[in-house]
Amino acid sequence: MNLPLSLRRLLTIICEASLEPELVRELARLGARGYTITEARGQGAHGLRDGAWGASANIRVEVLCDELTAEAIVDTLHAGYSANYGMVMFVTDVAVLRPDKFRGAPG
After folding, report:
1. Does the pLDDT value for residue 107 go beyond 60?
2. Which candidate, 100, 89, 39, 90, places its Cα nearest to that of 66?
3. How many other C-beta atoms lie within 10 A of the C-beta of residue 60?
4. Residue 77, Cα to own-chain centre: how many angstroms?
5. Neighbouring C-beta atoms of residue 23, cutoff 10 Å
């Protein structure tokens, strides 16, 4: 592959679906240029989350952004939501094409 790739962060948030409106507002406020939300099912510390009814539904939110934006989102969501809601967050390094689509300087 000869296409130029740039390093960015992929922040993944798995949480209760009821948080979606708040998360969307927080992401915009903290500088995320976009996100992808999908339904998620599984089992973990909060038991089985099969999505059979609204109270047991989970979502998976993915945000491609720069390091500073990822850190700001993680810090804010952890402080504001983790104590009272089922939420897991993880960040991975990814190589992206067209880095101008994501917050931060190319590189």
Report:
1. no
2. 100
3. 16
4. 10
5. 23
